[in-house]
């Protein structure tokens, strides 16, 4: 009976943590509804399997091994449709399920570790952290042979270039593709708008007398 209560308490902790991660941190920032069920299902599935293997295996050694295998399996999520920050959420989802499902881990320690994970993700993916730093893949309609003109062109189009990599150069079509990390220009202070002079037009055309 005590083991069942222990499992239910850990399950509540896991559900609370994954709901905070998915609904309070991830979705308000990235607005990808399609990944929210994936995070929830992956977390609860990992918790269920690890808890079952721990109950069968006694000490939980098999559970730890399976959990590590689940964490390492994240490598197949490398694709263009999943961004790097979303992969970080996948890692956190897996680790939360693993930590909360370990039977030998005290409830208080599991709660503290889960809170640390959530705090790290919340801080690392905060919109105000490096807010003006951006990345873009730019296709230029000219080929720059020297870094100085290329930097000036990128600065004119985007902002302050921090780092760039030339991905493609096409001398036939006279274009180049550049992967740029840049810092956006600071927003200008809003001043008074110049007054717009309204032109008055006649309400009806003036006709010459016959």
Automatic annotation (TrEMBL):
Transmembrane segments: 6-28, 35-54, 89-122
InterPro entries membership: DUF4956
Signal peptide: none
UniProt keyword annotation of Transmembrane present: yes
Region (Disordered): 191-210
Keywords: Membrane, Transmembrane, Transmembrane helix
Keyword Transmembrane helix: yes
Protein name: Permease
């Amino acid at each position: 009976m005590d083991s069942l209560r222990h499992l239910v308490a850990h399950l509540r902790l896991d559900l609370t943590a994954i709901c905070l991660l998915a609904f309070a941190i991830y979705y308000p920032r990235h607005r990808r509804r399609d990944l929210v069920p994936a995070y929830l299902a992956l977390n609860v599935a990992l918790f269920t399997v690890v808890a079952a293997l721990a109950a069968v295996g006694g000490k939980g050694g098999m559970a730890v091994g399976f959990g590590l295998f689940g964490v390492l399996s994240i490598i197949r999520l490398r694709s263009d449709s999943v961004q790097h920050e979303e992969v970080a959420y996948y890692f956190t989802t897996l680790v939360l399920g693993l930590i909360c499902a370990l039977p030998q881990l005290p409830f208080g320690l599991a709660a503290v570790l889960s809170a640390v994970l959530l705090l790290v993700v919340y801080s690392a993916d905060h919109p105000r952290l490096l807010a003006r730093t951006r990345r873009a893949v730019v296709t230029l309609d000219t080929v720059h042979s020297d870094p100085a003109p290329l930097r000036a062109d990128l600065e004119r189009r985007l902002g302050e270039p921090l780092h760039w990599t030339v991905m493609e150069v096409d001398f036939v079509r006279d274009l180049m593709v550049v992967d740029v990390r840049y810092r956006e220009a600071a927003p200008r202070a809003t001043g008074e708008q110049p007054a717009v002079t309204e032109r008055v037009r006649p309400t009806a055309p003036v006709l010459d007398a016959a």
